[in-house]
Design brief:
The structure holds two protein chains of two kinds.
Chain A: H1 2-20, E1 23-25, E2 32-39, E3 42-48, E4 51-57, E5 66-72, E6 76-77, H2 81-86, E7 100-112, E8 115-124, E9 127-138, E10 142-152, E11 172-182
Chain B: H1 4-7, H2 11-34, H3 41-70, H4 82-112, E1 118-119, E2 123-124, H5 133-168
Antiparallel strand pairs in B: 1-2
The chains are: A mainly beta, B mainly alpha.
Chain lengths: 184, 187
């Protein structure tokens, strides 16, 4: 009797956190999308102020997780006002035709120690490329994936014409992200 | 008859003087030219060159001061009125100060505006200030005012040298010239 009661309590303590462990939705206020471009060998950090998305993630079944993110390119803050206007142009993001950058995950693979390898497609300026990024998961009332990856701006035709000279603005751009969702 | 060696600046002092003069005048002109350029790769390149040249001025001036501390410059002509000697002293000290402060103001301004200075694209200078746009705009004005002040002093420096040469007919200009001239005695 006593044993089965203990068993029941143990079972509860195992079940309750597991239920609270599923994350879904999106918390833009606790998320962040920034980037580091390199100009004349000088790293310059910028960020996007507006983005939306959704995450479905169960740490007990990570392979079933998914993430979708849409970044409003017009909300860019390059750190330099004249550059914010410049990158809206057709040579850069061509925001009039392609207002959003979209990421959709295709698989989530646990690497252990709260680290996950996320594969997905990134679409910018009408061009879709496969990307892979390792992200660390922080559990809590609001869970968040944080990580970074590098892309080549030439893969997406970001910075055409005179800007295609990668000796001034480097081809490689680092993207840093923190994507948060509430626990259910 | 006085020996030319005693009345002239030494070769190192002369070389550093003209090297710094060329870099400062060139970089000042570059600053005037570049600040209203539309954004382009060319503009980003020039801004980097301008910063590298500014760091170079700072280093060359440090070298000049170190050299000068070990090598007394030739004295000013005895015939010069006391107020002119004082003005020359004050002008030279202000110039030395500005040759340090102007590059530093540009460096701080770059840090505050979020674009680090990386000397020749290789050596990153630490950012002494965090990124702060408002402070960056203030420092931009400080950099501009200091430069205009330095331009005014450089112009009076050159005017004074020409006045010594053509009106006073002394050796104040020639003793800093890279080529040797026959010693002159004041009229």
């Amino acid at each position: 009797m006593t044993r089965s009661l203990i068993g029941c309590l143990l079972g509860l303590t195992l079940v309750v956190p597991a239920m609270a462990n599923e994350y879904s939705g999106f918390r833009p206020g606790e998320s962040r999308v920034s980037f580091v471009s390199t100009q004349m060998n000088v790293p310059v950090e910028g960020r996007f102020k507006r983005f939306d998305g959704s995450i479905h993630f169960d740490p007990d079944a990570p392979a079933g997780g998914s993430a979708h993110l849409e970044v409003e390119l017009a909300s860019i803050d390059t750190g330099l006002e004249e550059a914010d206007e410049e990158v809206a142009s057709a040579e850069w993001f061509d925001i009039a035709q392609h207002p959003k950058a979209i990421f959709a995950s295709s698989s989530v693979e646990p690497l252990g120690n709260q680290l996950f390898r996320i594969h997905g497609q990134l679409t910018i300026k009408g061009k879709t490329r496969e990307i892979v990024t390792d992200a660390r998961f922080e559990p809590g009332a609001v869970g968040a994936f944080s990580g970074s990856f590098k892309l080549l701006r030439s893969d997406y035709a970001i910075g055409e014409g005179m800007w295609s000279d990668t000796s001034v603005v480097a081809d490689e751009v680092e993207i840093r992200f923190r994507i948060a969702a509430p626990a259910q | 008859m006085p020996q030319p060696r005693q009345t002239r600046y030494d070769a190192v002092a002369i070389t550093l003087h003209w090297l710094v003069a060329i870099v400062i005048i060139g970089n000042f002109s570059l600053g005037i030219y570049m600040h209203e350029l539309p954004l382009s790769p060319w503009k980003l390149k020039i801004y980097s060159w301008h910063k590298w040249a500014g760091v170079s001025v700072f280093l060359l001036v440090a070298l000049r001061l170190a050299w000068r501390s070990q090598h007394t410059p030739p004295p000013l002509p005895a015939a010069m009125p006391g107020w002119q000697k004082k003005a020359a002293y004050a002008g030279h000290h202000t110039l030395y100060l500005l040759m340090f402060v102007v590059p530093v103001s540009g460096w701080l301004m770059s840090s505050a505006l979020g674009v680090q200075t990386v000397y020749f694209g290789v050596l990153p200078l630490p950012d002494l200030l965090d990124k702060n746009k408002e402070l960056g705009e203030v420092l931009k004005q400080v950099h501009k005012v200091l430069n205009l002040g330095m331009a005014a002093i450089v112009l009076s420096h050159a005017a004074a040298a020409l006045k010594h040469h053509y009106l006073d007919r002394d050796d104040v200009l020639t003793r800093m010239l890279p080529w040797s001239t026959t010693p002159r005695s004041p009229r």
